[in-house]
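$ fold --in a.seq
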Amino acid sequence: MTNSVFQCANCGAPLASANAICPRCEPEFSAPDKHTGKYRCPDCACRFDQPDIAIWPSNAKWYRPQIQKAKCPHCQTLLRDRTVIQRSRTEMALMLAIIVASAFSTWRPGTQIILLAVLLVSEFLRKQAAAKSLVIEEDRYVSDQSGK
């Protein structure tokens, strides 16, 4: 029997056998832990510090516009950030009507100021509601249903 010494191919440290794993190099080559991170994926429940970015739709023709969306780095599910305010088309139409009404109206100047103040107050309250809806920081991302 010969006493052959096995060495780590990465750092050269002695190993007990040919199949042994070097304890100094193992963290460098191991996969990231799926149970540590700031945010949690709603589909696979794995954790991550920052979502990956995906171009959506991925197989669009050259003339179709594409946007960037967040996705889980583990299961590739498209995610939506709950801190970003999304407005419906009705809300956008009402905001536009208030701006047009205040700009082109022959009403007294006080009425225009009131309309614009209503617009600003509603925007402020909407941002406050979005901030309060996020109770737990780890639940910041939800599944994006528009990307399916």
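$ fold --in b.seq
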Amino acid sequence: MKKILFIFIFITGLFSAQRTQYEKYYNSFQNKSYNIYIKYKKDKYEISVGLPSNDIISEFVYVDFSNRNNTDFLNAFLLAQEKFNEWKKIKEKENLGDVSKEMEIDSKKFTYSFVYGDSLYSTNPGKLKFKFLIEKNIPYCVFYANGLGTPTNHYMRMNGFELRFSNDEDFSSFLKNLAQNKILDFIKNNEQKKDLLK
């Protein structure tokens, strides 16, 4: 078991070292920008999107996707945005008070990652979770996870994350650089710059 854990930490440590900052997005509720990282080889890539952590052991959590499930990732958020805007209209029409309701969004399974000490840990795969929240008369679409564990260390758990979207601008800032064509353009341009130094 110790040997497996060592190999896992070594591999994820290498992944952390090889990541390149790709973009940032701004979230109005947090009033903060979060980094988006990329690791790629030719047109194969892995994206890690920074999220605000609920746990003191790690400042950020990352939701991870690749070229294989890029479209599935985007579709889940677009469905959540559509449902959020639909329920916002109901909130205004019916003058709803404080509400917290799970949003049934069809989602593939994705992994999360977080840094603890000098190592990057990946979680067990899970579906993306969203809820509709009205708090102090303000509606939010909340992307969240309550608790995250790792497959290699059952004692390593962290309290998840919560990212609130309050309007279409928040969704746009989050999603605009995660489309596959934008990512492939970045890879192409980055490789062209490297070619200048040959």
